[in-house]
C-alpha cells in the first residue's frame, strides 16, 4: 500500500507538473494519467476474477473464491473511475459527456457485469454458495473483456486506438509515457494491497469461530 | 439407458411443461397484454407523429419483447423448486442438460411465440412500414430464443436466492445488449432499404452457439445454486 501511494504521488507529479502540455489538447489531456491506468485495471481485475472464479469452481479452493469475490468491488471502482474520467475528458474534447461508441458501451457493460456479480454474491445466504454462483456469472462475462480491449480496432468509432505498445515502439513521447507507466504500477500495487487486505478480513470473518482465528484475536488483544 | 428412453423423457418433460402452461392460460396471456400496454404508452409519451414513431418502432418492439420475457423468466423454475420436482429431475438418470433444453424450449413456446404472433399488431400501432415487418419477425425469431437461453442460465444461478427479480434484470439486460444491437441494426437497415442479412446471420450464428452451450451452462448453474 505504501509503495502504491509513493508511486502514485510520483506518477501524478510527473503527469500533472513535469510532462509538457499537448500541442493539440493543452492541459486537458492530463486526465489520461488516471483514465488509462484505471481502464487497464478494470480489464485486468476482471481477468483475475475470471481466472480465480474458474479455479474456485473446478478445484473448489476456498481462497480462490475469496480472491474472486473481493476483486469485484475494486474492479467495479476502477471501471467507474474510468467512465467518469473519460466523460470528463470527453466533454471538452468530443463536445459530449457520453456517446454510444463501442468502447464506451462495452466498458459500461463491464461495470454492469461487476455489479451483477456483486449483487448475485450478496443475494445468497450461504456465502460460499453465493461465491460459486457469482463466480459462474463472472466466467460467462469474461467474454466481454476481449470485446472491450479490441473494440477500438473492430469498430472504428469515436474512441481513439491505443498509443501505448508494450512490445514495440509506443506512439507517445517519453516525457508523457513514464508518468503513465508509473501510474500503472501504482494502480497495480494498490489493487494487490487492497486485495490482500480484503481477502485477509474476509477469511478471518469466514473462519471466525475456528481455533486459529481465536488465537490471532487473542494476540491482538494482548497488544 | 437407451436412446428411446432419452427421447421419451424429453417428450414427457416438454408435454408436462406445456400442459402446466396450458392449464394456466391466463398467466400465459399476461406478457402479451403487458407488451400491448407498454407499446401503447409510447405514442402517448412522445407524441403521435407517425414519422417519429416509425423511426423508433423497431427498437420499441424489441425492448418491449425483452422486458415482457424478463418478467416471465423469473417464474421459470420457482414452482418446480417449491414442489420439489426440480430435485427429482436432478436425480433422474437422464442428462439434466437435455431436460433443461426441453424446459427452455417449453418456455420459448409458451411466452415468446404468443409475443411474436402479436408483433405485426404492435408494429402497425407504431406505423412501421409493412415491408419491414417480415425482417422484424425474423429478427425476433432469432432474438427471443437467445433471451430464453441466456435467461434460463441466469435464472438457474439465482434459483437458490429469495429475491431475484431485480437482480435478474441487472444480470440479463447487459448480456442482451449485443443481441439487441444486431436485431435493431437489421430492422434499421431494412427500413432504410439497405441489405439487412449480415446482422441477421450474426444473430443466427450466436443462436446456434447458444443452443449448444446454454443448456450445459444452465444445468451447471442449477447444480451450483441448489447444492447445499
Question: Would you spell out the secondary-structure blueprint of this structure?
Answer:
The complex is a heterodimer of chains A (223) and B (228).
Chain A: H1 2-18, H2 32-59, H3 62-94, H4 102-123, H5 127-141, H6 144-154, H7 174-206, H8 211-222
Helix pairs in contact in A: 1-7, 2-3, 2-5, 2-7, 3-4, 3-5, 3-7, 4-5, 4-6
Chain B: H1 3-23, H2 25-46, H3 50-73, H4 78-82, H5 85-91, H6 96-125, H7 133-157, H8 165-191, H9 197-226
Kindly describe this structure.
The complex is a heterodimer of chains A (223) and B (228). Chain A has 223 residues and is mainly α. Chain A contains 8 helices and no strands. Chain A has helices at 2-18, 32-59, 62-94, 102-123, 127-141, 144-154, 174-206, 211-222. In chain A, helix 2 runs parallel beside helix 7. The two termini of chain A are 23 Å apart. In chain B, helix 3 runs parallel beside helix 7 (133-157). The model of chain B has no long low-confidence stretch (mean pLDDT 86). Chain B has helices at residues 3-23, 25-46, 50-73, 78-82, 85-91, 96-125, 133-157, 165-191, 197-226. Helices cover 84% and strands 0% of the residues of chain B. The A-B interface holds A 57, 105, 109, 112-113, 115-116, 119-120, 123-124, 126, 129, 132-133, 136-137, 140-141 and B 153-154, 157-158, 160-164, 167, 170-171, 173-175, 177, 217, 220-221, 224-225, 227-228.
Amino acid at each position: 500500500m505504501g509503495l502504491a501511494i509513493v508511486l502514485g504521488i510520483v506518477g501524478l507529479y510527473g503527469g500533472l507538473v513535469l510532462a509538457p502540455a499537448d500541442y493539440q489538447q493543452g492541459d486537458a489531456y492530463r486526465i489520461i494519467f488516471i483514465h488509462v491506468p484505471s481502464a487497464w485495471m478494470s480489464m485486468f481485475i476482471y481477468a483475475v476474477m475470471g481466472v480465480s472464479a474458474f479455479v474456485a469452481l473446478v478445484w473448489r479452493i476456498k481462497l480462490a473464491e475469496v480472491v474472486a469475490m473481493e476483486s469485484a468491488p475494486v474492479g467495479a471502482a476502477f471501471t467507474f473511475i474510468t467512465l467518469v474520467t473519460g466523460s470528463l475528458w470527453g466533454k471538452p474534447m468530443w463536445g459530449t459527456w457520453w456517446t454510444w461508441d463501442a468502447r464506451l458501451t462495452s466498458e459500461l457493460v463491464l461495470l454492469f457485469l461487476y455489479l451483477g456479480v456483486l449483487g448475485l454474491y450478496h443475494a445468497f445466504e450461504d456465502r460460499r454458495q453465493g461465491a460459486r454462483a457469482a463466480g459462474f456469472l463472472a466466467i460467462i462475462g469474461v467474454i466481454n473483456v476481449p470485446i472491450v480491449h479490441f473494440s477500438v480496432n473492430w469498430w472504428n468509432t469515436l474512441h481513439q486506438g491505443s498509443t501505448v505498445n508494450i512490445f514495440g515502439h509506443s506512439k507517445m513521447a517519453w516525457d508523457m509515457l513514464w508518468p503513465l507507466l508509473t501510474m500503472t504500477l501504482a494502480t497495480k500495487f494498490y489493487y494487490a494491497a487492497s486485495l490482500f487486505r480484503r481477502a485477509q478480513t474476509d477469511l478471518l470473518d469466514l473462519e471466525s469461530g475456528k481455533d486459529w482465528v481465536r488465537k490471532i484475536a487473542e494476540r491482538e488483544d494482548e497488544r | 439407458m437407451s436412446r428411446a428412453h432419452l427421447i421419451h423423457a424429453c417428450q414427457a418433460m416438454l408435454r408436462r411443461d406445456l400442459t402446466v402452461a396450458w392449464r394456466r392460460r391466463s398467466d400465459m396471456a399476461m406478457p402479451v397484454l403487458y407488451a400491448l400496454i407498454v407499446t401503447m404508452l409510447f405514442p402517448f409519451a412522445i407524441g403521435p407523429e407517425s414519422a417519429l414513431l416509425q423511426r423508433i418502432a423497431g427498437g420499441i418492439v424489441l425492448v418491449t419483447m425483452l422486458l415482457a420475457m424478463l418478467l416471465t423468466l423469473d417464474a421459470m423454475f420457482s414452482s418446480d423448486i417449491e414442489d420439489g420436482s426440480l430435485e427429482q429431475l436432478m436425480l433422474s438418470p437422464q442428462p439434466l442438460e437435455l431436460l433443461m433444453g426441453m424446459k427452455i424450449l417449453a418456455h420459448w413456446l409458451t411466452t415468446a411465440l404468443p409475443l411474436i404472433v402479436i408483433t405485426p399488431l404492435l408494429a402497425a400501432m407504431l406505423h412501421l412500414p409493412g415491408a419491414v415487418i417480415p425482417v422484424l419477425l425474423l429478427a425476433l425469431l432469432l432474438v427471443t430464443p437467445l433471451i430464453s437461453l441466456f435467461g434460463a442460465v441466469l435464472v438457474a444461478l439465482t434459483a437458490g436466492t429469495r429475491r431475484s427479480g431485480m437482480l435478474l434484470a441487472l444480470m440479463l439486460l447487459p448480456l442482451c445488449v449485443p443481441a439487441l444491437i444486431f436485431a435493431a441494426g437489421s430492422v434499421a437497415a431494412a427500413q432504410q432499404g439497405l441489405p439487412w442479412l449480415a446482422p441477421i446471420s450474426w444473430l443466427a450464428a450466436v443462436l446456434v452457439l447458444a443452443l449448444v452451450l446454454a443448456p450445459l451452462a444452465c444445468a451447471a448453474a442449477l447444480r451450483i445454486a441448489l447444492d447445499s
